[in-house]
Amino acid sequence: MTLLTLIRHGETDWNRARRIQGSTDVPLNDDGREQARDAAAALRTQLDIESTVVVASDLARARETAEIIAAGLGLEVSRLYPELRERSYGEAEGLDGDEFLVRWGDWHTAEVPGAEPWPHLRERGLRALGEVVRDAGGRDGGMPASIVVVTHGAMIRELIRYATDGELPLRGERLANGAAFSVRYHPDRLELLSYAPADA
Predict the structure, then answer these.
(1) Rounded Cα distance, 36 and 69, in Å
(2) DSSP string, 123-147
(3) Which of 24, 57, 77, 91 is the most buried (most CB within 10 A)?
């Protein structure tokens, strides 16, 4: 059993404009960097820093968030994982919510050409977490007390859905940029320990 803190990357200009990013590599804005610093300050009071590892998706917004958090904890990012990337939204990337609604209808039932299927995202995320946990064990198999995993909104949503058998997140709930969600990793399941969505 390993404690994972899943952190959504800080804000980007596309987040602020409610544009769909997906696999598009958009950098943090200044508010996003401040959110990363705030996340680091919160983690300093919650984790055993000497036994913590920080990893991230390799997309710029997650990587920089992780670098800021790690620096705030006196650590370095130990590894970047392409499999922790955001869901690809295919033809929807770059569009805002209104354009999406006109083209494909309701967000929760839309079939977007080129988008990564939700079951594939879940499988990819669980596979990535397994790899993260194995890598953190190192050659001697000793595990750190906790692993900070900086990733993306849809990825975290799907992992939470898996952990709660679909009960969370509720329809319409947003996961805030810079927000942290704690889960305990077991080889056959995730156990959600903390959940705090933003206001819808």
Answers:
(1) 6
(2) HHHHHHHHHHHHHHHTTT-PPPSEE
(3) 57
Catalytic entry in 83, 86, 93, 116: 86
The per-residue pLDDT for 137 is 85
* pTM, entire model: 0.95
Say how far apart CA 84 and CA 149 lie, in whole Å.
9
9 is catalytic: yes
* pLDDT at site 200: 42
Domains located in the chain, CATH noted: 2-192 (3.40.50.1240)
Residue 120 among the catalytic residues: no
Say how far apart CA 157 and CA 177 lie, in whole Å. 13
Tell me the pairing of strands 146-151 and 2-8: parallel
Give 198's DSSP letter: B
Q: What is the pLDDT of residues 126-146, one digit of tens each?
A: 999 999 999 998 655 567 779
Residue 199 corresponds to which tokens in the numbers above? 């206001």
8 Å CB contact between 78 and 148: no
Return the SS3 of 149: strand
